[in-house]
Amino acid sequence: MTSIIQTESLSRRYGRTEAVRDLTLSVPEGSIFAFVGPNGAGKTTTIKTVMNILEPTSGRATVLGIDSRRLSPAEFRQIGYVSENQEMPGWMTIRELLNYCAPFYPTWDPAFAEDLRRRLDLPLNRRIRDFSRGMRMKAALLSSLAYRPKLLVLDEPFAGLDALVRDEFIQGILELAEQSQWSVFISSHDIDEVERLADWIGVISEGRLYLAEPVAALVGRFRSIEATFEGEATMPRPLPERWLAPEVAGHTLRAIDAKAGEAGGEDRVREVLRGAARVEMSPMSLKAIFMALARTFRSASRAEGDR
Amino acid sequence: MTAGAVHLAWKDVRQHRAWLGAFLAIAALRALLIGSGIDAYITNPNLLASLGFTYLLLCILHFALVVVVAVQVVQADRLVGTTAFWLTRPVPRRSLLAAKLATVSIVLVVVPVVFDALVLATNRMAWLDVLGAVAEGALIRLAIVLPVMTLAAITSDLAVFVVAAVAAFFGTLALEAVFQWGHMVPARNWSSAYSATLVDAAVIIACAVIALAYQVFTRRTTRTVLIVIGGVTVAALVANRWTSDLGLMKTGLQAGWLDPSRIVVTMKPLAPENVSTTNRKRPWLIRASYIVTGTTANVALVPLSVTTETLFGDGNREPFRAEVQQRVWDMLPSPPAFLRKDLVEALLVGTHLVNAVEFRPGQQMRPIASLTEEGHRKLVYLGAQFTVEVALGGIAYHVGAVLPLEGHGSGAAGDRRVSIQSATCEIGACDVVLRDAMAGFLVDLRRPSRVEYILVNKTRGQAVWSAERDYFSRYPVFGRASFALLGEHLAVTRRALMFKAPDSMPDMIDARWLQEASIAALEVRDIGAFTVEAKVVQEGRK
């Protein structure tokens, strides 16, 4: 598996704040990688470091096989970048934006750009500064796709977009993904936004990467457990490490097992809960997994902070 | 410049076309105002004042737009922060730097300098002056525009830029104070002061370009700020401590002016005026006259000091030096300016400058020396031999434009164009307003000559020195006053002169005299002091 983005022990500090800590990540080529985490988790800092907008404090990142600090125009010709934080040349119309961007990219396809513009429903002669936020993001996407980049980096592209625009945006990316052999690295704080898109997922919280794997594998191994006991339910001791968010209420114990979907995983769960009258294990949605992970990471982080 | 840089520069031009258009319009309007010489036709002082105010306003706007345009162009592709559009686009940093430098240089430096050149050319300045002014103008504009660009490169927007500019200004003042502390500032002559100014400009330009390039290529703002601080320190150091003269100023005598090696002064000692009162306690005055020969025609010389060596009968020699109380010099009108010699230029042949102090060859001068020893007196009369060295101070002049009192013609006088704006004459007196325009330079001291004006009636062979003069446009209508605001290089000054008949000849200037009168502009050049060996011709009593 070739990595289109790779980081090794990447760290970035802002004064005393460590925004990204020792982050090692590999984004496989051809994947749509969702990089999710709560606000302030370090997603944008990671992306900016990868894109050589920021310098890493330590560690390194490579993009398209090149050290991020040495990214040159040759690499940027193969990378599309759309970010909620990116300034767009508001004084330009869409026509002017396309005319301005086209000479930088040898692979710029005017017909494709026009096709995209129609699909994204962007008026040709209106100034970008007069656009709504959603239209500005679509304009950024248009200017980042028209040269068929090898890698598309989207940093919180859906933030503040209404549902309709978001759907159009996602639809556009999905259609293009089917047409082109490309990799997409997309960050979001809302798993709902990327659930339809992603085939890989990485979860970051407080600057640390907690997991990075294919969505199918993740969904496949996570199970929500509900065990009913004859008497009062009790927490098994010791609590399995793979369990997240265990809770007991009356006769019922609920937990999430991070490995129950693996071979023999359900048996291991039943072994732990052998005193239960009934054990039900059900697959989880990506959102439910993310929420459970986010809560767990936050608790762990607070506990670490308290220490 | 690469195609990419041109593409980026064109983007900047289109983005800021409103600002650039405003700047170019103001620069053109200003050039038109100053270049047209419209003020030469306006005699109403109120209208002139309004015009001067308008021009000053244009200069302030011009400067403000220079700053705004430079900042806008640089910050259009912001070099600080993490949100700029260009950061994730295949924009070569070399091209970005070249584009910014080209856009700003062409619009804010080249175009105004071309306007400068056109203004100077239409005012018929000498091409050497035009070249010099244009080169100096480009240098100074770059020394202002590039630091503005650098400051813009390390700030995120115009508001932050203004704060940083204010901080930089006071920081520079503090540095200046440090470098001027006590007696640290070395003495400099005009030429080395001019060299220091130009070297300082070059240092500022170099430091600004280095800092700007560093910021574009690395975006390490903290280090760029350190480079800027270093550059400002070096510039302040150069401005205050540079003493070398790079020979950039025109000094010395030009062809056609005085050649000191050709000067011969012949001294003729005269008898003492009052021998009986001479004693050891009271200096005894010797009078003498001298003749200066071998000079170019248009040079007036006055002795400043005399060094004598007396050869006694027993073979002993005694040197003696005395400062000459040169009364002719002291009696000159203030400022001492023009001494006419006979038989100079064709214009003045036979013309008698009636109310100026004249200085003629052979004129008596007193004293050559003060002798305090009685023995010397005797020796003088016994025919002791003298060798005399005379230190001379001189003024040389060329006759420039000769303009009739009526009409708006103009003519060249030295390095300027002179025209008469108005002449109001009545019997016995004449008020004349003159306008002179010249290529302005950063250091006014660079100008080696000045121009003086006389009212001449060639037919009558008479000329009148101005009795009063008032350069009431000390801050001229156009030009020099606004230099600090990147003004034009054409400096225009209005001069009000009053000529009147001498008290001894009150009826000299009559209506007919005025009909034949013209204004002559004389370029006057101080040729400094030098020493010549004088031949002594003794004709005194023995």
* Estimated radius of gyration of chain B: 30 Å
Which shape of chain B, going by the Cα principal axes? flat
Give unreliable regions of chain B as ranges: 272-285, 325-346, 355-370, 374-384
Order of helices and strands of chain A: EEEHEEHEHHHEHEHEEHEEEHEH
The CATH class name of the largest domain in chain A reads: Alpha Beta
Given helix and strand content, the structural type of chain B is alpha+beta
Count of beta strands of chain A:
14
SSE string of chain B, helix = H, strand = E? HHHHHHHHEEEEEHEEEHEEEEEEEHE
- Tell me how many strands of chain B there are: 16
Uncertain regions of chain A: pLDDT < 50 for 5+ in a row? none
Question: What is the mean predicted local confidence, pLDDT of chain B?
Answer: 74
N→C terminal distance of chain A:
40 Å
What do these coordinates show?
Chain A is elongated and about 70 Å long. Chain A starts with a strand and ends with a helix. In chain A, 33% of the residues lie in helices and 30% in strands. The longest helix of chain A is centred in the C-terminal third of the chain and has 21 residues, at 286-306. Chain A is of the alpha/beta class. In chain A, strand 9 (200-205) and strand 10 (208-214) form a beta hairpin. Chain A folds into two domains: 3-217, P-loop containing nucleotide triphosphate hydrolases (Rossmann fold, 3-Layer(aba) Sandwich), CATH 3.40.50; 219-306, Alpha-Beta Plaits, CATH 3.30.70. By secondary structure, chain B is of the alpha+beta class. Chain B has three domains: 3-241, no CATH class; 260-393 and 530-536, no CATH class; 398-527. Chain B contains eleven helices and 16 strands. Chain B has helices at 3-15, 17-36, 45-75, 93-122, 127-153, 158-179, 190-218, 221-241, 327-330, 374-381, 511-515; strands at residues 264-269, 284-285, 288-293, 299-311, 317-323, 352-353, 364-365, 370-371, 385-404, 410-413, 416-426, 429-439, 450-457, 462-470, 490-500, 517-536. In chain B, strands 1, 3, 4, 5, 6, 7, 9, 10, 11, 12, 13, 14, 15 and 16 form a 14-stranded mixed β-sheet that branches. In chain B, strands 2-8 form a two-stranded antiparallel ribbon. In chain B, helix 2 (17-36) packs antiparallel against helix 3 (45-75), helix 3 runs antiparallel to helix 4 (93-122) and helix 7 runs antiparallel to helix 8 (221-241). Chain B is flat and about 90 Å long. Chain A binds chain B through residues 48, 51-54, 72-77, 79, 81, 83, 85-89, 91, 96, 100-101, 103-105, 153, and chain B through 3-4, 7, 11, 14-15, 78, 82-85, 87-92.
